[in-house]
UniProtKB/TrEMBL annotation:
This is Troponin T type 3a (skeletal, fast). SUPFAM superfamilies: Troponin coil-coiled subunits. Residues 83-92 have a biased composition (Polar residues). GO terms for cellular component: troponin complex.
Length: 187
């Protein structure tokens, strides 16, 4: 009876040892997977940081090119204004340049408001879904605005064509222009 009990104890001890070994082996695999996951996350973060750095450099280069082009255009306009020698034309150039600068600033302001930084490293799965839904809604809004602008542009082009046609229809068939540039209809 003691032999049977001893065998049973040995068997139980072996089973327990096998379970302990399996548990530690499983835990070791999980730790390795966790380490690999942490390394992947670290790699993704570093890649994203590199991409953001590259994007910032490109934006800076683009801004520098735009400034250089703007200066070149301003210089060319100044030269042409000086060659014309007319104060009025230089004033018109200044007004146009001022309008262009304001328009560009307004466009940059609008783009800066619309461009949102995307930082999703810290978000869990539910928040990522919410963020994706939010971005989807934002895209829908932008598409709707684009559609409205395209329709307005089509309408304006149509109106311009109709006005041009109307003016062409109203032109007299035969006109005479005197030296003071007045037009007279010849009957």
């Amino acid at each position: 009876m003691q032999d049977i009990q001893k065998k049973r104890q040995n068997k139980d001890t072996l089973e327990l040892q096998c379970l302990i070994d399996a548990h530690f082996e499983h835990r070791k695999k999980e730790e390795e997977e966790l380490i690999a996951l942490k390394e992947r996350i670290k790699k993704c973060r570093s890649e994203r940081a590199e991409q953001q750095r590259i994007r910032a450099e490109k934006d800076k280069e683009h801004q520098a090119r735009r400034e250089k082009r703007r200066k070149e255009e301003d210089d060319a306009k100044k030269k042409s204004a000086l060659s014309m020698g007319s104060n009025f034309s230089s004033h018109l150039q200044k007004v146009k340049r001022w309008q262009e600068t304001n328009r560009e600033r307004e466009e940059e302001k609008i783009l800066a408001e619309r461009r949102k930084p995307l930082n999703v490293d810290h978000l869990n799965e539910d928040k990522l879904r919410d963020k994706a839904q939010e971005l989807s809604e934002w895209i829908k809004t932008l598409e709707a605005e684009k559609f409205e602008h395209m329709e307005r542009l089509k309408r304006q082009k149509y109106e311009v064509r109709e006005r041009i046609r109307g003016q062409e229809d109203r032109k007299p068939l035969c006109t005479y222009t005197c030296h003071c540039h007045h037009q007279y209809l010849i009957l």
